Amino acid sequence: MSLRIKKFIYGIIASLILVNVVFSKKEIKNKNYTNYLASFNKIDGVNVGTDVMISGIKVGQVQKVLISNNYPQIYMNVKNDLLISDDSSVSIQTDGLFGKKFILIELGGSENYMKDGDNFSFTEDSIVIEDLLEKIIEIGEKNKQL
């Protein structure tokens, strides 16, 4: 076989491997993580890969974001060794004023714990900076009139 044909075959094989890597699903199928679901009204800035934190410590990440019944839903993976009570809440927070978004789990006090695939009952939406600035301006204008 000539060198030219060998290079052509190697190029085809490399191209197939590259296409497979680019288009393969990148889902975490790991026994070390538990999956949870949370429904929100507004999730501005949250994407797949967004950090999930408890008390400032990264414990997982957002696995999937989709819309169901006109409401955004976030599927997240959290480390298995954590016991999250069924009255825990989840909120979308911002790291600083203009920082990146992250999911914060605030642990509850119940002795019943969530299982794989369970939903968070208590959620708090993302705060949009533009809405916050509008409210500040509105308060300032009201105070100015007094």
Structure characteristics:
146 residues; 7 strands; seven-stranded mixed β-sheet; alpha/beta; single chain
Please give the radius of gyration in angstroms: 22 Å
Strands of the biggest beta sheet: in what spatial order? Answer: 1-4-3-2-6-5-7
Counting helices, strands and paired strands, the structural category is alpha/beta
Q: Strand share of the residues?
A: 25-35%
Mean of pLDDT: 87
Number of strands: 7
Q: Biggest β-sheet: count, sense, barrel?
A: 7 strands, mixed
Summarize the helix and strand pattern as letters.
Answer: HEEEEEEEH
In whole angstroms, the N-to-C terminal distance is 91 Å
Shape verdict: flat
Number of helices: 2
Number of domains: 1
Low-confidence stretches: none
Helix content: 25-40%
Structure overview:
It is a single chain. The protein is α/β, with parallel strands linked by helices and 146 residues long. It has one domain. Helices cover 26% and strands 32% of the residues. It contains two helices and seven strands, in the order H-E-E-E-E-E-E-E-H. Strands 1-4-3-2-6-5-7 form a seven-stranded mixed beta sheet, with no helix packed on it. The longest helix is centred in the N-terminal third of the chain and has 21 residues. It starts with a helix and ends with a helix. The mean pLDDT is 87.
